[in-house]
């Protein structure tokens, strides 16, 4: 499926489009002032922003690493976290037949690995969600593979076909972290950079010991300026609203001024008053 691409943030494109419309009105203004268009311009921008919401894809169960023959459901959500009414699904940019909000993968195969996106009517495609399908007896699953300092994540030692795993030990960089007789998820809270590394687990299935492949988990330092990415669009929207309001006010004042001049000229040329 051919997907839309936006070389710059869409809200910025909408803003400059609106500015270009206003500029064209200013340049095309004549003595007969046009009807102020500020209100419709704002409505036009609001409608565009409403129809260009980006959906999101979630997984149930929430693991993006699964074993062959596992079952997982991908769910397409709107911005308000509600499921969409219908969706277009793609797998590695190939359109799928499924059109509901849920894409069920039953008895996963290795070839089911790859990037999945969903797209609602009149929306842009979601960010890709990567699903990895692996073959083996044990698989280390993680709630996130990249986390920021101060956040939390948890890991799970998962057995093929959901078979019971006992005598589970979790390792980071070859050092044992925790041991449980029964398979239990391990949570790591308030992480620091030292919590990053190569994780794997060992366990017993049907009285045989198995070891999972390692998984790299990266811990990033927190960005104290990350809040700017949310502030900038708000400031742009405020500036746009102020600019539009000033433009409408200027139009009204010029229209009133021209009307006053025409009225004065009409009085001077009135023969009854000459």
Specify the biggest β-sheet.
Answer: 6 strands, mixed
Q: What distance separates the N and C termini?
A: 76 Å
Q: Low-confidence runs (pLDDT<50, min 5 residues)? A: 1-16, 21-39
CATH fold type of the largest domain:
Immunoglobulin-like
Which radius of gyration do the C-alpha atoms yield? 30 Å
Q: What's the overall average pLDDT, rounded?
A: 80
Strand content: 25-35%
User: Which CATH C-level class of the largest domain is it?
Assistant: Mainly Beta
CATH architecture of the largest domain: Sandwich
Q: What is the percent of helical residues?
A: 25-40%
Structural class: alpha+beta
* Shape verdict: elongated
Total domains: 3
Element-by-element helix/strand order: HHEEEEEEEEEEEEEEEEEH
Transmembrane segments: 230-258
Pfam family, one: Ig_2
Protein name: Fc epsilon receptor Ia
GO cellular component, one term: external side of plasma membrane
What does this structure look like?
The strands form 4 sheets. Strands 10, 12, 13, 15, 16 and 17 form a 6-stranded mixed β-sheet that branches. A 5-stranded mixed β-sheet has the order 2-8-7-4-5, with no helix packed on it. Strands 1-3-6 form a 3-stranded antiparallel β-sheet, with no helix packed on it. The protein has 3 domains: 39 residues, no CATH class; 83 residues, Immunoglobulin-like (Sandwich); 93 residues, Immunoglobulin-like, CATH 2.60.40.10. The relative contact order is 0.13. The chain is 26% helix and 32% strand. It is of the alpha+beta class and 274 residues long. This is Fc epsilon receptor Ia.
